[in-house]
Amino acid sequence: MSLEIKDLHASVDGTEILKGLTLTVPAGEVHAIMGPNGSGKSTLAKVMAGHSDYEVTAGKVLLDGADLLDMEIDARSRAGLFLAFQYPAEIPGVSNANFLRAALQARLPDGEEIDAVAFYKDMYAKMDRLGIDRKFTGRAVNEGFSGGEKKRNEILQMIMLEPKYAVLDETDSGLDIDALKIVSEGVNAMRSPDRGFLVITHYQRLLDYIVPDHVHVLSDGKIIKSGDKSLALELEEKGYDWVVEENAA
After folding, report:
1. Structural domains of the chain, ranges and CATH numbers in brackets
2. What is the pTM of this model?
């Protein structure tokens, strides 16, 4: 079981962003992708999720052997992919509780219905774990939320949906240290031999809390260096230029 990205090429408005990206994230492992602005990190996340602005010109993205690129967006989610956005969208008029309930209902076989009592009991327990006020269940998804509240809300969605593979696109962006710890605890509670994580981040600080098994450097649309968690510390100390120069040599 794994999430496999094979020789992925993708463009936006005719400009190639991903230029042959290859990466495998086995179930049970946490992989981190770091890299400078414009290297293609968020493009990778959006391509996997099926964002319409991005054109895939070559390559595959296999989730346990099935090509996500052949699936509709909702089918990718039902297959077990979850994306936590860098900038979570607001959905006016749809409460958090109804959003989560609909998402879970969509994963059930035809004819089965969610047990409402069990759903709320489970949701409240997970909200308490993440420090989310229970009143948020009645508020529209992310509407009027602070940056930290939006990120916690996405982690709540992930915990409720229990995906096979989770892609976290700069989840640490805009978080203070307390929110960062809470979000990280939520992610760490989800780690298991049956679930893989791809954590996209600019900063090493997130990896102090979500310790990766492997770290990859993305530059100009390709993975140019991989290592263990110590690579993130080296990047923090030296910056990205030394990796780019080393790769060009």
Report:
1. 2-248 (3.40.50.300)
2. 0.90
